[in-house]
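Figure-free illustration: sequence to structure, shown twice.
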Amino acid sequence: MTNNLDTLATALYVTTDDLLKERPDLAPWRPAVGITPQLTDAELVTLSMMQAVLGFTSEARWLRHARAHLRHLFPYLPQQPGYNKRLRKAAELLRQVTRILATNTSVWSDEVWIVDSTPVECGRSRETVKRSDLPGWAQYGYCASHSRFFWGLRLHLVCTLQGLPVAFALTGAKARETLLDLLAAELHLASARPGQTLIGDKNYFGRDFEHELAQQGIQLLRPTRKDERQRAGGSLFKPLRQFIESVNETFKGQLNLEQHRGRTPRGVIARVMQRILALTAAIWHNDHTRQATLRSITSYDH
């Protein structure tokens, strides 16, 4: 099996199409009587994944590229307003497909998770903030890793050491107590993995916080804070920190997470889901084609 974008797109399309035949309730709602879309939901999922992998942040430019180069995969392509509308309505379908792909990999059952949050900037000027529909959700926050303030959201991500997304959430920039909410929303994730190890940075702390994780059978490993005694495994965190940063760099450097161009909550959610789907699909396909590096997307981004 070859390892290029066409084979990834074909594999994702077939998987999504089969899923929607088994679970038609996962498709975005549409009236029972009306015009059947010429671009199917499986094609929409595949098209959105390819946009993220190829690095097109402009939907209009992406559709021009697709009309010129991808007609062999998509006989019909909508105009930009129609594509944008369909994509925003398909955010939940993107999430469901992402989970199906993730659970169908050999690394889904890994015994070690890493957790971190990264900024999702939504505007850099006062005028952009005023025109956006995001105030109230988006906030001013500070990114200690890059010593910068930003206006926007945070992507909270739990993933395996190979970078496979396990759970994720988008919150305001100042939200911190998100990990427990993530685990509470999907109790089976922890209950099915007794003895799971979770690695985070020094901001994941607190006696009650660690006690609640322990009750779920999760062992938290993190660096020692200045006001604490030395914790076990302290010498391991510098190299492990690089795993966490490299996953964030894949989202930002290769999948353009902060160039999403979303101006409404539904728009931002759909565009972030595109990128999470793209990374998951690449890991899924690399796993099935027995590639040495699962998180590599360089075979698909051209």
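We now fold a second protein in the same way, so the two outputs can be compared directly.
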Amino acid sequence: MTNNLDTLATALYARIDDELKASSWLAPWRPAIGISPTLSDAELITLAVMSALLGYTSERRWLRRGGRDFGHLFPYVPQQSGYNKRLRAAFSLLTSMIRIVARDTSLWSDDVWLVDSTPVGCGCSRETVKHSDLAGWAQYGYCASHSRYFWGLRLHLVCTLGGLLVLFALTGAKADERETLRDMLDTVPDVLAAHPGQTIIGDKNYFGREFERGLAERHLKLLRPARKGEAEPTGSHLFKSLRQVIESINQTFKGQLNLERHGGKSPAGVSARVLCRILALTAAIWHNDQTGQPIKRSLTAYGH
């Protein structure tokens, strides 16, 4: 099997289509009697993933190119308004396919997870803050890694050392990272049951006796750098290199997948665009794993 964008798109479409046939409840709701969409749900999600992998931030520009250059894959490409409406309605399908595709990889069984959060900016002016539909969810926050303030959201990630996302959450910029991690873990008890004795590596923000006790009750072991006044934990010299892994994953989202240029103007729009980028990275890792590529997180073969 070759390793290029067309092959990935074909394999992903087949995987989604098979899953929808086996679990029809995953598909977005539509009336039992009515006109069937010309573009299937599997084609819609595949089209959105290709857009993310190719770095498009404008849906109109992407749909023009999709109809021109990818007609052999998509005989019908909708207009921007219909595409956007259907993509927002496919929130549940996107979320489910991220988990389903991730489970199909060899990286899913890794016994070490990395946890971190990264800013998702949603506006750069005071007028945007006052009039945006995201007001109330998006907040002012501070990014210590880049020493900057921003207005928007935070994407919280739990991933393997190979970059595969296991858990994720999109919250306001001021959401507590520890509480968000606990909520993510409690939402998916089946994932925890499948990973007993998991080790989680985080930064200095993941601290506190009560927090660590809660992780221990969930049979999870937390490793983090020492805070001021604490003794250095065993193996602390490894944290710096492992922190580079999570920073590299964040940069993949920000650089190659244009996470901060998502263009969403509403909660549903932002959620759909962020989920498409998460599925794009997950699908690339899945396809690289299936084709025996040495670097599972590489997007090089799919960026053109």
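Summary for the second example: The CA atoms of residues 127 and 135 lie 11 Å apart.
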